[in-house]
Fold:
Amino acid sequence: MASKLRLGVNIDHVATVRNARGGSYPSPLSAALLAQAAGADGITAHLREDRRHISDRDILELMDNISVPLNLELAATDEMREIALRHRPHAVCIVPEKREELTTESGLDVVGHRDRLSQFIEPLRDAGFRISLFVDPTSSQIECAAEIGADIIEIHTGTYCETSVTNRDAGSIELDRIAAAASLAATAGLEVHAGHGLTYATVKPVAALPEIMELNIGHYLISEAIFRGLAASVAEMRRLMVEARAS
Structure:
């Protein structure tokens, strides 16, 4: 169990704002450095196949300039694996990806794509990468992730975050699912992370789960940065996480 809960800050949507005008500002690297200075334990970036936000150049600049680990999110394609092998980030998190989605909608179907995912991660494991799979909080997906050689699972918290706002009972059920999934994963020898949709209002119940070692949070922090600044937004999320874990 983790004595300190790590915070990974996803900077994708700084690139979204930059790309809206096609220029060079705001800089994802500058955001990463601010987040790092404010207490982020790592930086997460999702290099999508259509490059809708983070670009190849962003990955290069992050690798050259940040001093905290880079968690590179990517789809299970040959192109993305070659990019990971070339840049060698600290960890690779494999996520499902559809061109038409606005954001990642669910976890990987590890069970349904067991053979393909196993073959995909083998060269990455051989190269020394820490492999994370982004999954829904279901026992079959977690057990399969452990069986094919993942080091980490990141539990998809989006459904919990959505339902807890509109239906407290449904949110409680989803939180119970996350707690059970985290316990199962830890028992299976997997490091447990969580993320997607977490806000100041929803983070503390997840942060309090002792098996979870890292939260990856992006869109909400970038949104809050509009009003209070990125450093203050990261610091407030860190405060809530520390408070939850201490209790």
Q: What stands out?
A: The chain has a mean pLDDT of 93. The beta strands are 6-10, 42-46, 70-74, 91-94, 130-135, 152-156, 191-195, 212-217. The first strand starts at residue 6 and ends at 10.
